[in-house]
Amino acid sequence: MNDSTLERFHYDNKIVKYFSAATIIWGLVGMLVGLLAATQLFLPEANLGNPYTTFGRIRPLHTNAVIFAFVGNAIFAGVYYSMPRLLKTPMWNSFLSWFHFWGWQLIIVAAAITLPLGFTTSKEYAELEWPIDIAIALVWVAFGANMIGTLIKRRERHMYVAIWFYLASFVTVAVLHIFNSFELPVSFMKSYSAYAGVQDALVQWWYGHNAVAFFLTTPFLGLMYYFLPKAANRPVYSYKLSIVHFWSLIFLYMWAGPHHLLYTALPEWAQVLGTVFSVMLVAPSWGGMVNGLLTLRGAWDKVRNEPVLKFMVVAITAYGMATFEGPMLSLKNVNAIAHYTDWIVGHVHIGGLGWNGFLTFGMLYWMWPRLFKTSLFSTKLANTHFWLGTLGIVFYALPLYVSGLTQFLMLKEFNEAGRLAYPNFLETVIQIVPMYMLRAFGGLLYLSGAIVMMYNMWMTAKQGVFQETEEDQAPALAKAYNPSGEFWHRAWERKPVFFTILATIAIAIGGAIEIIPTILIKSNVPTITSVKPYTPLELEGRDLYIANGCVGCHSQMIRPFRSETERYGEYSKAGEFVYDRPFLWGSKRTGPDLHRIGGKYPDSWHYYHMVDPGSMSPGSLMPPYPWMTTNELDKSDLPAKIRTLQKLGVPYPEGFDQEATADYDAQASKIVANLKDAGVEVAPNTEIVALIAYLQRMGTDIKQQAAVPNQ
């Protein structure tokens, strides 16, 4: 073709460099916070003696930092590098690109400030409060608009497979974020979920599972389909397998959320659907893994010498392991063993450290030197990073599998007399402390590898010259093109709007079929007439419980197992949670379940347990919270909380917002009197009084009356 028929354009490497640098920096921050959290599990003193760095507050900081800051910036770096090159055009709008970059970094900074301060919704992977939720939606829409604009002005007729995954990720994350974030604000940094109890749990894990699917999986599959063939200098193994992989994956994933809620108060039909579709996910997930690994056919000799390919091979293998283990954990008999134990933490980190972390490292090692027109500073250091990271994953995950099985075996065991062999939950915690130490050591190795990478990248940049723009040329896209006999999917690939609509329909079906009946059909949540709304003092105590991240260690869901009902009491019923906004069923038991803690101990026991946990539970690894005995609780927004909950359907009497403070004071004075009788002097407006009120209320409604069906 004659040069005169080609259009010249350039790619913006500067935005890629910024997102890549942010990936490295935030990755180190997220891993460091994770190491601090892991250390606190065997050394509570590592909370540094203040409320802002306790485990309950920094755990969500860690998960948000590694998911949205480290992995998120990696996705954007890869997309802004690969998409223009695949479509033969610059990104549509430079302003939107930079709005996306700076907006995303400001969101991360806002999360880093608000989460340690206790501003949280407590929803897994969606802890940020409503103003930040709105900012996330705006920035995400800007990213999507830029992506779609680029697709419309492309010079390449057909969309390559990586673009399919980018599009599906954008659409689905937008849908998930918006629907899960329906909440009614109380004040600038406080809101209540629009959903309650069982419905809130289902919507949250529809979001939570699919945030893993469409933020941590599908965009990374897109990156795999671009960067792995580039690094191996081989075409993708099978185009048709990628079609089956893509459509079956995005359709099936959206049904699988309920597998996080097996044996809970969720309706049985929803649990069954979640299990069935989770097991079906093995096929498309492994289709992607096979397509990736077989792309290396004829290039395996390079894996021995190329650190980029080493990282990518382990990443794809970890993806295969995690996506086999996930469906297996969705089987109810396996879930009964693993849920609420460290097994789940190990499973999640195989995916996080292996799949997301290693694919990110491989992508950066391939891309960064090309941005600076040089070679990698040190292949030896990259290989060192690879082995530190690999050993880190092994030392992190294997102890957690041992820990999870230990927890299961001890907590389920009965003696010859038919009684629990280990009735005290703390007995299991003491046994697994060495596993927590090994897990932290694994995290330290992984972090050390990332530090080595940062140095390698810095030196690579120093020895090269950054190329801010990269020139390219391609013929303009011909308007008329409709060949006869074209393969049906190839026809879809040249119609991005039509393709996006089809992907949206595919992801919407599963969620709609599960969520709509659960919300609209009342028989899914049988009424318990004795369940009443929380009193103002209990409500404030519950909000404190949420702010301090107590749900990160304690569940509030007793499953219908003999071992759990013997240890904790009557199993949990759906109708008990109708006023819980948000639900607090938890996803991990580092401490015992608390759903039936109400009335089990006197007020003074809870006081001393918060001041010095070891005094009430010898050997406890829970950190002390002495500041709660002196911190005054600000109840100025209490009337606004009552009014907000009334709007959401909580049946407080009309005008109760004006009486809430007096009600608070009356109940607080009773607890203060109880504490005084036990020799404890405390002011009625302190945080500890409100927290005690909530703990003493927890799970007591069921003792009064059994469930009755809706009339």
Side by side, the strands of the main sheet go 1-4
Structural class: mainly alpha
Residue share in helices? Answer: 55-70%
Element-level helix/strand string: EHHHHHEEHHHHHHHHHHHEHHHHHHHHH
Q: Kindly estimate the percentage of residues that lie in beta strands according to DSSP.
A: under 5%
Summed up, the domain count is: 2
CATH topology of the largest domain: Cytochrome C Oxidase, Chain A
Number of strands: 4
CATH architecture descriptor of the largest domain:
Up-down Bundle
Main beta sheet: 2 strands, antiparallel
How far apart lie the N and C ends? Answer: 76 Å
What would you call the shape? globular
Question: What is the CATH C-level name of the largest domain?
Answer: Mainly Alpha
The CATH homologous superfamily of the largest domain is called Cytochrome c oxidase-like, subunit I domain
Radius of gyration: 27 Å
Count of helix runs: 25
Low-confidence stretches: 705-711
Could you report the average pLDDT, rounded to the nearest whole number?
94
Binding site for Cu cation: 209, 259-260
Keywords: Cell membrane, Copper, Electron transport, Heme, Iron, Membrane, Metal-binding, Respiratory chain, Translocase, Transmembrane, Transmembrane helix, Transport
Domain Cytochrome c: 536-699
Binding site for heme b 1; low-spin: 62, 349
Molecular structure report:
- The structure is a single chain.
- The chain has helices spanning 13-40, 55-87, 94-114, 130-152, 161-180, 197-215, 218-232, 239-253, 268-280, 282-294, 300-303, 307-329, 332-338, 342-371, 379-412, 426-463, 488-493, 496-520, 536-547, 562-568, 603-611, 613-616, 638-647, 656-677, 687-697, and strands spanning 6-12, 183-187, 190-193, 469-475.
- With 711 residues, the protein is mainly alpha-helical.
- The chain folds into 2 domains: 12-301 and 309-472 and 486-515, Cytochrome c oxidase-like, subunit I domain (Cytochrome C Oxidase, Chain A, Up-down Bundle), CATH 1.20.210.10; 536-706, Orthogonal Bundle (Cytochrome Bc1 Complex, Chain D, domain 2), CATH 1.10.760.
- It is globular.
- The termini are far apart.
- Mean pLDDT is 94; it is low at 705-711.
- Cu cation binds at residues 209, 259-260.
